[in-house]
Design goal:
P-loop_NTPase; ATP-binding; DEAD_box_RNA_helicase; single chain; two-stranded parallel ribbon
């Protein structure tokens, strides 16, 4: 057998690599690896490569001091045993442009070589195959929800986090946003015929509430727990089958839910940001966000939409965002109660309580600053995305499960028009005259980029991107050869 055998040891949480073996690869969390080195369980003399995966997230969790010490220990050990080895440090992430990450790169590396597979030096840090947009929701907007033909309980009530019930002074506008977001999510999912969709929520409680609401649409009582196995094997004909992947659900449940979703048995995978990184679901076509990340963590948006449009498949991500004049009052527990269970302190954190005002519009601006372009908006009247030339399947083009009159949200005009002329002009200025004259076409989400999908005018592949990829591949091969030379 000419294939090399590679031994991998894991150091994370309560897992620790076996003693008496010499692994080729050590995988672990920074703190766990540091502790193992301190106890003399890991020999650093043969370490030639240190990889920091999702580097920006490691720094965000205040682990930069541990990483700096770990890198220094590896280098110092080499000097102490008389070797002249070089340790290659690799930092990987979809977002390495923040000032904090830049400082870490300078601290851990010398003359770092950048390998950019997305063309971010051209201002495009998003995958070429991803379309993304946001739906701006107003608290006074009436929602026409799903058709009785395929929804068993279209008037199901939406559970919320309970803040307004505990303290009405937090505002009816905030409560209305919470009540309408799940309904709009369902409306968008049905309009675009999302047969497999990942849905991001802010907290475990938000995931639980959305799961309860989707079950209610299928006629499942709110107090009844439906297991992953039952959801997979039931013949009840659930139109809104869903599972949750979140920290509170446990590892086994999360693995079962993820596997069911990958197999296409479950329509909606509801998750917190624990699923935003490191999960690869082949051909995932759709994604919805019920809440954006905080403005000081806007990079998480890039990681979220990176779940769709992978490996050359087309993907669509839509965020449902409170209008710019509305903020949501949400839980931000500072109490000692596990996950805030049993907490009823609706005072603001600055007043010693456990709630904050969450401003999603501030996050929109932060995201647009990162991606260097405005985010397209969904037209609330027909759920199309005019800036991208995208509209949901209808009886005119693909045939629709919805009746024409049911596929529209309210046609009222808001004082602050959601598709403002200024934002529209910004987008049109980015399109060439030839692209602007193209007719709209419906992308086939979840399918590989081909002639049909290439016709969608918003696809961001162009000749200079191709040249960039070729140049990147050449540079990558150069770096690989240079590193192999250092190994002798």
């Amino acid at each position: 057998d000419l294939e090399p055998s590679i031994k991998v040891h894991l150091y994370a949480a309560d897992v620790k690599g076996p003693k008496g073996e010499e692994p080729d690869v050590i995988v672990g969390t920074p703190q766990k690896v540091k502790n193992s080195i301190r106890r003399g369980e890991l020999d650093l003399s043969r370490v030639f490569m240190l990889i920091l995966d999702e580097a920006d997230d490691l720094i965000k969790n205040d682990q930069e001091k541990i990483l700096a010490k770990l890198c220094d220990d590896i280098k110092t050990h080499g000097e102490r045993d008389g070797s002249s080895k070089r340790v290659q440090v690799i930092l990987t992430s979809a977002t390495l442009a923040s000032e904090e990450v830049q400082d870490m790169i300078k601290l851990l590396t010398t003359n770092a070589q950048w390998v950019d597979t997305k063309g971010s030096i051209l201002g495009n840090i998003l995958p070429d195959t991803v379309h993304h947009a946001f739906y701006r929701i107003h608290p006074d907007e009436p929602i026409i929800i799903s058709d009785d033909n395929y929804c068993k309980n279209p008037r199901a009530s939406v559970p919320t986090d309970g803040i307004y019930d505990l303290d009405p002074s937090t505002g009816l506008a905030s409560q209305e946003i919470k009540l309408k977001k799940p309904k709009i999510a369902v409306k968008i999912a049905d309009a675009y015929k999302m047969d497999r969709c990942m849905v991001f929520c802010r907290t475990n409680l938000d995931c639980d509430n959305l799961e309860t609401y989707l079950h209610s649409l299928d006629g499942i009582p709110p107090n009844r727990n439906v297991s992953v196995e039952e959801m997979m094997t039931s013949t009840a004909g659930y139109q809104y089958s869903c599972c949750v992947v979140a920290g509170a659900r446990g590892r086994q449940h999360n693995q079962e839910a993820l596997e069911a979703f990958k197999q296409g048995v479950i329509r909606f995978l509801i998750c917190t940001d624990v699923a935003a990184r490191g999960i690869d679901i082949s051909g995932l076509p759709f994604e919805l966000m019920l809440t954006l990340p905080p403005s000081d963590d806007a990079e998480t948006y890039i990681h979220r939409i990176g779940r769709v449009g992978r490996a050359g498949h087309m993907g669509l991500s839509i965020a449902i965002v409170a209008a710019d004049e509305v903020r949501e009052r949400v839980w931000f527990h500072k109490c000692n109660k596990p996950r805030g269970k049993g907490c009823h302190d609706t005072r603001l954190v600055k007043d010693g309580g456990c709630t904050i005002w969450f401003d999603e519009w501030k996050t929109v601006k932060a995201i647009e600053k990162i991606i260097k372009e405005p985010i397209p908006e969904v037209d609330p009247r027909d759920l199309s995305i005019p800036e991208l030339g995208i509209e949901p399947p209808t009886e005119k083009n693909k045939g629709s499960r919805d009746k024409p009159e049911d596929s529209r949200l309210n046609p009222i005009t808001h004082k602050d028009e959601s598709l403002s002329s200024k934002r529209r002009l910004m987008w049109l200025n980015r399109l060439t005259e030839e692209e602007s004259n193209k007719t709209s076409s419906t992308a086939i989400y979840g399918q590989l980029v081909n002639d049909r999908n290439m016709s969608c005018r918003s696809l961001k592949i162009n000749p200079r991107d191709v040249n960039l990829r070729n140049d990147t591949q050449i540079e990558e091969r150069k770096v690989t050869r240079m590193f192999l030379k250092t190994l002798g």
